[in-house]
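Figure 2 data, in text form.
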Amino acid sequence: MKTIRIIKPDRILQGNINLPASKSISNRLLIMQALCGNEFSLGNLSKASDTVLLQKLLNRIKATAGSRDAVELDCSDAGADLRFLTALLSVTPGRWVLTGSDRMKQRPVGDLVESLKQLGAAIEYLGNVGFPPLLIKGRNLRSAELNVNAGISSQFISSLLMTAPLFPEGLTLNLKGEMVSEPYIDMTVRLINECGVKARKWKHKIRVEHGVYSCAGFTIEPDWSAASFWYQAAALSEKTDFFLPGLREKSLQGDSLLVSAFNVFGIRSDFIPQVSSQQSAVGSQQEKVSRKKSAVGSQQSAGKSLQTADCRLPTTFGLHLTKKPFELEGFYYDFTHHPDLALPTIACCAALGIRSRFEGLKSLLIKESDRVRALTTELKKLGCKINLISGEFPVIEIQPSKLISKPDIIIDTYRDHRMAMTFAMLAMKTGTITINDPDVVIKSYPGFWDDLESAGFQLR
C-alpha cells in the first residue's frame, strides 16, 4: 500500500491556501438542479470525488430515464450520493439499481427507504434488508405528513426534503428523537428557499411546499469542514499567521462554529475584506480625487468610494488565523450536530495532552469507516492514553499524555479521507508522521497534499 511521510521542521503555520468548495452545498444544488431540469449556473462547484461522481451519475440518469432495462448506478463509497439519489430515483421514470462499495453495503438506509415507501415509492432490497443495493422503480409519489427518525442521519431527511417540491401538495416531516447533524438539515432548508421553493423549519417540524426549483445561479462557499484541519494545525502550532480566502462569518455551513470552538485553544479568527485587483484600481483613482479635498471631505469621500466599489465589484472576505497563549485544564464536547469536526478536535486534544471527554459520536460509527474505533486505534499507536466506552452511544476519554513518533509507526486511514487529513496535521506536534493510503483525500479535498506543502510541510 502507498504511504506518505509528513515532516514539519518547525511549529509555525503561515501563508495562505484556497480551500476546496463545499461538497455539502455542491451536492445539494446538483440534486435540486436535476429535479427541476434546468441547469442553472453553479460557480465554484466542488471538485471532490463525491461531487464529480454525483455529476456523472446524474448525467447517466438523465440519459437513460424511462429505460425498460434496469440501469445500475454505483455510488462507490459516497454515502450522501447514494442517499440523495435514493429519493431522486424514486420519482424518476425507469428501473434503477443503486449500489456501492462493500463498506457502503454496511451503511444503513432502511429508515429512508421506509419513509419513501409511505409516499408510494417502489423500492426493493437486493441484499440485506435495510442496506444497499436497492432496486428502485421510479413513479409519481403522493404527499403526506411523515414521522421520521431524526437520530440516524441528517442526509435521510435532506434527501426527502429536496424531493418534496415534486409531490402534489408538498411534504411535512415530524422529526422524532434527538436530532443529529441539525445544521446540515438547516442548510438544506435554506438552499431550497434560495432556489425558489418555500420551506420552513420550526421546532421538530419541517414543511416544504409544492413548487419548481428556480435559480439564476449560485456561487458555492469554501468548505468549512476542510478548514477544520487547518484549525487543528493552528492549535498545535507555536505561532500562526495564516489566511483562508473566501470564508465568511455568515455561512450556510454549521461547521463555521470552528471560530468559537477553537477559540479555547488560543486560535483567534478575524474576518478580513479582500479587495480585488479591479477594486484596487478603482480605489486608487478615487484616492487621487479624494486627496484634493479637505481632510473632512476626504474621509467622507473615502467612505462613499468604498461603498461604490462594493456595489460594482463585491468585496470578498477571508479568514485570518493567529495564535495566542491559552490555558485549558479540561475539555468537553458533544459532536451530535457537528460530526465532521470530531476527528480533528479529538486528535488536537490528544496531541496537546488535554484531559477531555467527547460524546455525540453515534453517527461516526456509520461513516466511511467506524471513525470512533479507527481514531482510538491509531491514536494509541502514538502513545495516546485514550479510553473508548463502546455501545450505541460511544464516549471517548483522553488522559494527559505526550504523543510519540517513531519511523516504524504507520497510521492506517481505513479508506477514510478525514482520518488521513487529521493524522497528517499531527506532524505539527510530533515533527513527523507516516500514513497509509494518502490518496483517499480526493473524496473531499483533492488538493490537500499540495496545500500542505505550500504551508511548510514536507512530503516524502
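Caption note: The two ends are 15 Å apart (CA to CA).
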